[in-house]
Design brief:
Distance between the termini: 40 Å
Radius of gyration: 26 Å
Largest sheet: 2 strands, antiparallel
Shape: globular
Length: about 650
Amino acid sequence: MAEPHLAQRQSSKKDVYDHADPDLLARDAFAAVDTDGDGYITVGELGAAFEAAGMTLPGYELRRLISEYDEDEEGKGKGKLQYEEFQKLHDNIKQRDISKGFKGMVVKRTDLEKMGGISEASVMGTTHSVRHEEAAAFARWINLNLGKDADLQHLLPLSTDGSGLYSAVHDGILLCKLLNHSLPGTVDERAINKKNLNVYRKRENLTLALVSAQAIGCNTVNIGPEDLEAGRQHLVLGLVWQVIRIGLFSHITLQKCPGLVTLLRPDETLEDFVRMTPEQILLRWVNHHLSNAGIARRVTNFSTDIQDSEVYIHLLDQIAPKDVGVDTRALQEKNSLKRAELMLDEADKIGCRQFISPEDIINGNPKLNLAFVANLFNTYPALDKPDKMPEWVDDMRPETREETTYRNWMNSMGVKPYVNWLYHDLCDSIVIFQLYDIIKPGIVDWNRVHVKFSKIKGFMEKLENCNYAVKLGKELKFSLVGVGGVNIYEGNETLTLALTWQLMRAYTLTILGQLTDSGHPIVEQAIISWANRKLDESGKTSRIKSFHDSTIADARVIIDLVDAIQPGSIDYSMVLEDATDEEKLENAKYAISMARKTGAKVYALPQDITEVKPKMVMTVFACLMGRDYRPPMLTTEATEIDI
């Protein structure tokens, strides 16, 4: 009797599809075709959609289709379809037989589970896709890297199919540990509740993990502790992927791998290097080793270009130590699935059989293939530092703490595109406009903003954006004396930082003003007065005179303030008195993690406290004041995040 009921349900779904609003149909089709959820349809994804519709098109025909509807002349969207572009393609084919295949693809996807959200977007027809192979891959990665952690023995190992991942995050310990694996020191272990885990103490851990993830640049907009506690799959999977990705990408820098300079062409400079995203660097790394192998083939993506495994076979042969026995015999296998399995056997010889299965390769899963390649790079980059480094390398410096903080703050706000290098990624002001709209909704006249740039007039269009960005800053009473649009466009570090700091300051004080219901923006002196009053009311003896106060360096006043906001939260046996510089740093680490544990969205780093950096110190106190004026992170509306 089960089969008729199933058929009836599928028929009912198709009836709903056939009579649904056309725009919702296109959106559902876009969500189904956009398998990696990045907001763009690639050649590989479009090809898979046509195959699902029973029609196989050659690569050149798929590229022709995309070229016909793609309006981007350059940038991230070139060679791909955004929703509006895809909608035109969808509308043009919906009367043909092929549209039935698209319907089937939306109604039934065997490789993913669709979950309705409760956000406004979900009410309008958005569903959340959960790819089970990704959950399985992340579970295996966690088992490998955290399996021996004594604090996780009650949770690990996770089931290899990934189904246990969603419940394993419920007490927050796993997420905190994963954060520290990706970026060591993100969470002070002393702040994690590991014993007597009642509902309240678990919620504290989840809050600590969420705010800490936000501080390193994860987009946690509209995710709350209760979402993770309930194991909402699309939110858990999205957050875990962001944390893992940040860890994988953190090693792809010139400082950690000087041999990266060998990937640059003779005419390229520092500016060209910083323009490249980690994904672009990895693509060039793969192509570099293909060239060394004498292979003419090149890759432009981590989906369709690697589906036959041949690129991976050559890559492994190039990067593996010569004494481990990696070879290219898998090339002789004609069956693509078996060839992928043989290739992974070779990867296993160098301890890199992570993230992907043979099916993920032939299906061209871009997320898992990207993770696989990033792990290969981190393990065996096989890039020798040249005897003579380019002259511009001397000008290449690590990202400063201030730049890291600003960049992480922007990315946690969910801006697009993702900010990798502050000065280059702000030079068209698109990210700046998004931040303005968050600080003061409606201030940006988007009709004045160029969001796409032509080849001929691109320079002038970006400059017009930057001039408008400076104008809006002045409307918000920013101090921008001597700052012009050309300075932002050219990536002038000093002047760009001046604008960026004022954006972060305005955001912090605006949110604080809303929480205190003061009716006007909060100023720094009001924060100092609040802090001293709060300390006095709680019987604490510590005080501050300003955000330059040298007594802040040992973090005691911040620790006392956290305990004043949430009485009994601080274990004072952890706090070091008459501290040395090293002990002050330990206090600062504890202070920041304990502040985050209360729900205070602190972006500053421990060194900002010990060195008493007044700008960052101000944000710490402002965030604590904001936490004092609102309840802990108890409820929030779940919505979709960019994964």
